[in-house]
Amino acid sequence: MKRIKWTKEAIKKEALKYKTRNEFKKSNGSSYRAAIKLSILGEVCIHMPQNASIGKLPPNFKWTEALLIAEALKYKTKKEFRLKSSGAYKRARQIDILNKICSHMENNLHLWTNEELAKEALKYRTRGEFQYNSRKAYNVAWLRDLLDEFCSHMELAHPA
Predict the structure, then answer these.
(1) Domain final position from 37, 60, 83
(2) Whole-angstrom distance, CA of residue 97 vs CA of residue 55
(3) Which of 10, 12, 7 is CA-nearest to residue 48?
(4) Model-level pTM greater than 0.85?
(5) Helix/strand/coil for 130
(6) What confidence score (pLDDT) does residue 119 get?
(7) Helices 29-37 & 8-15, crossing angle to 10 degrees?
(8) Residue 96 falls in which region: left (phi positive, over 0), alpha (psi -120 to 50) or beta
């Protein structure tokens, strides 16, 4: 039987397949043992709950944008994401990437055509007014990177 030489990158990639350390250990013991030997087990298992039965994350855990994207991909709606992974949801809101990482979710945003978005934007004098009065249309335009185009007729906000 051929032995695998586990690199740090390969171990990280392998560990991402599992939700718990126990699952990682049972499914790929050689990678798990290599992580221990290289003193990187905590690092490669950072996305796993410290105690799966309680669902706690390690005290030094930090939600990175990459981890937030991976977490959001597990859910079909923002509501499901918020209910099942509230910490990730809150962090995504804090760093203002929630809409970006949830763009794949079912939320009726895909129902807006670009023509409808342009027509909707024409109803408003400023971006703030557009965002406040038609949040879904505004978000779709933002996700499609069309805000500048659809808001070109709008007044620029002037400081008071």
Answers:
(1) 60
(2) 24
(3) 12
(4) no
(5) helix
(6) 94
(7) 130
(8) left
